Amino acid sequence: MKAAIPTLRLLRTTPFRLALLYLGLFIISVGVILAVVYRSTAGFLEEEIGATIALEVAGLQDQYRSAGLRGLVDSVRERSGYSHTNSIYLLTTPGGVILAGNLSGWPDATAGPGGWTHFKISDYGGVNNRPSTAMAVSFVLPGQFRLLVGRDMSELDQLRGRMVVSLRWVFLVTVVLGLGGGLLLARGAMHRIEAINRTTHRIMAGDLSGRVPRGGGGDEIDRLAGNLNAMLDQIERLMTGMRQVTESVAHDLRTPLSRLRARVELALIRETDDPEVYRGVLQDTILEADRLLATFTALLSIAEAESGANRKALEPVRLADVVRLAADLYEPVAEEKGLTLVTDIRAEPTVRGNEQLLAQAVSNLLDNAIKYTPEGGRITLLLEGVGPGQAARVTVADNGPGIPADMREKVLERFVRLDAARASPGNGLGLSLVEAVARLHDASLRLEDNEPGLKVGIVFPPDAG
After folding, report:
1. Does this model's pTM top 0.70?
2. Which residues belong to any copy of the Histidine kinase domain (predicted)?
3. Which end of the chain has fewer CB atoms at under 10 Å, N or C?
């Protein structure tokens, strides 16, 4: 169940502030658009009225030129007498006496460019006897007679008023919807962020199994959740490994330490002056200490590889050189045990990596193969170049007892050894180190059946070259 987010807290969130910013930009844009619409509509109608008045003025001027003052007076009276007309006419003498028209007096308004003027009709007894404005043009005829022709703008004024009211409502609805939408978007984003916060709180409380839920939309938050979950998987794996290492160290090192102490204690208890006895005890103690140091060295190498500390120091490494060096070191060991070590280098690939760790990984694979392959067996060290889905592959194959398919994942854990291998020296960390090195180089470790025997491959991805 999603927890409710307080409104005041929501108002202080970054998603809401971003939504508010975009809302402000949207409101400004809508306001500009509405202003342009208003100006365009009202201005277009006003221009149409002005064009109509100009045509009518031209007609009256023609009437005056052809029929004189008497004809102009009759024409103005005739046009002024039309019912329900919105036209305005006024013809006066030089002294201001009204000869014809439907205005009670000459408007007290200053004419603008071209003789155009705007005035209130209600002050002069307009055509419909209602408060409104008019737009008219005036000019002086020969003989100082003055003529005014215009239009009652009441309908346009009403249209403008309705447009203003409508645009105000549109603007208000835009603000309300934008604000509501911003709140919804911010609330939705905050629910997903709160899910991440709840997961982090669970993890901080000790529950490492918590994971960030994903919405499934594939957006930025989903990608963030995926990266966080991958990071949490890595943290859980490291913490589990650390816990297993601690338990395994405490369990597996107790026996050799107890044996070491017992050997020294027996040497002290034994009453003898023979220096060879003490020499033998010291030699056995050194061998036991070397095995303990080898175990701790392997653990440190695994920890170093898993931490990724060496990732910044990766540099181009020629795998062929690493393979040749490992083969040269272990070929005498294989011959001493009666084994055949065959090195097959089919390419000279270069990958970005840590040469020392790569050499240690290949050496561990060879050491395991030599250790568990019976006398007269055959071991193959193979290096291949670019192939499908890989930049390079290092493979060590033997014809020994192999590893059962259901145990191949288990043997990669620290201190895990098969029952058949417990009689041979070792600490169960060899394959764990190889896997850690492979993961450091974004490579994969593959354990396969060699029929008979085991085939272990380190496969480097295409982008590792």
Report:
1. no
2. 248-464
3. N
